[in-house]
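Reopening this ticket.

The earlier resolution said the output was attached, but the attachment link was broken on my side. Pasting everything inline this time so it's all in one place.
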Amino acid sequence: MAKTAKKSKKPAKKTAKKAVKKAARKVSKKAAPKKAKSAPKPSGKKFLIIYHAPGDAMAQTANLPPDVQEAGMAMWKAWAKRVGRKLTDLGAPLINGKRIHPNGATGVSTRDVSGYSLIHAENWDDAMSLLKGHPHISGWHPDATIEIHETLLLPGM
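Inline output:
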């Protein structure tokens, strides 16, 4: 008789566990943020923007007072807002570049690459218009330049 009582408790426990799991799933579904519809990708061609500046310029920028740094960031934010959806990746500053040779040898990069961004533009004229008034070439450093390259789509990729 004791065995019968144990058997009847097991199904009751399983049923209770199932009910708790079901309730937890309902709560987590309600609490989960709803996914927003993603914006369509911009049309046109993709361009890689490479920012160049001497290493000492980057160090100088890091040592500027916070209000001057904030003013510089405000210029970048204004540019990003103006470019809008055509700016597909604001990018990031780059440091500590390395060169890798075909024989496996490595060395420090001698190029003054300081950052990158990705934009979409209908053509070269459109891409160049997006770079007008760009904060990187606003005069913060006399040797700061921008290099831009159109990317090519690889078949089958």
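Reporter confirms the inline version is readable. The beta strands are 45-52, 87-93, 98-100, 106-108, 113-121, 145-150. The mean pLDDT is 83.
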